Amino acid sequence: MAAEQAGLPKPTLLEEPAVCAGIRAIVGPEHG
Amino acid sequence: MKIGIDLGTTNSALAYIDEREAEDRDFPPIHIFETPQLVAPGRTEPRRTLPSFLYLEDGQPVGVYAREQGALVPTKLVHSAKSWLSNPDVDRTAKILPWDSPETGRVLSPVEVSARYLAAFREAWDRAKQLPLADRDIVLTVPASFDEEARELTL
């Protein structure tokens, strides 16, 4: 519903923490 | 091009890879999309993360300025929308935010706030890139603890 309201196509959902670990490793530990 | 969005409780981020950059590499480089956002009155700057905060004033800004201004006027600050989105004890589509406001000041639902963060990414991306974000394949993170309703509300 949120993605649709934002005008985006239905995204693929991926469970944390696997993908977030990768993103956080890049953007830094301040990312919550 | 593949897009990944981490819709976080405190900060959100968008990263992408371009398969065309995979030449002679095992994996294409990951780019962080530096998201332009209001950081002070009248000043917009790109940042590697989009703080997951919304401030209730004209235009309902999200990001750095919303977080900073909201620290001064907490009753106008919407935060922790993701936590509310996964809370089965409330109507997650009801206008219950900002929770810290008097009930008469609660004007947005957790879904609406989450949509505002995603829309901020879409608007910033569409201004910066040629192909609209809506035409890309997007992967969106959700906590493993999200129940089925929270997942549906995210989509």
Structural overview:
The complex is a heterodimer of chains A (32) and B (155). Chain A is an alpha+beta fold and 32 residues long. Chain A is built from 2 helices and 1 strand. The radius of gyration of chain A is 12 Å and the shape is elongated. The mean pLDDT of chain A is 76. Chain B is globular, with a radius of gyration of 16 Å. In chain B, β4 and β5 (43-47) form a beta hairpin. Chain B has 4 helices and 9 strands; from the N terminus they run βββββββαβααβα. Chain B is of the alpha+beta class and 155 residues long. Chain B has helices spanning 64-72, 81-85, 110-128, 148-155, and strands spanning 2-6, 11-17, 30-32, 35-40, 43-47, 50-51, 54-55, 77-78, 137-142. Chains A and B meet through α1, β1 and α2 of A and β1, β2, α3, β9 and α4 of B.
Question: Could you list some keywords that capture this structure?
Answer:
heterodimer, A: 32 residues, alpha+beta, 2 helices, elongated, B: 155 residues, five-stranded mixed beta sheet, two-stranded antiparallel sheet, 26% helix, 25% strand
Strand content of chain B: 15-25%
Spans of at least 5 consecutive residues with low confidence of chain A: none
Count of alpha and pi helical runs of chain A: 2
Spatial extent as radius of gyration of chain B:
16 Å
Number of strands of chain B: 9
Structural class of chain A: alpha+beta
Number of helices of chain B: 4
How do you describe this structure in short?
By secondary structure, chain A is of the alpha+beta class. Helix content of chain A is 47%, strand content 12%. Chain A has helices at residues 1-5, 18-27, and one strand at 12-15.
How would you summarize the topology of this molecule?
The complex is a heterodimer of chains A (32) and B (155).
Chain A: H1 1-5, E1 12-15, H2 18-27
Chain B: E1 2-6, E2 11-17, E3 30-32, E4 35-40, E5 43-47, E6 50-51, E7 54-55, H1 64-72, E8 77-78, H2 81-85, H3 110-128, E9 137-142, H4 148-155
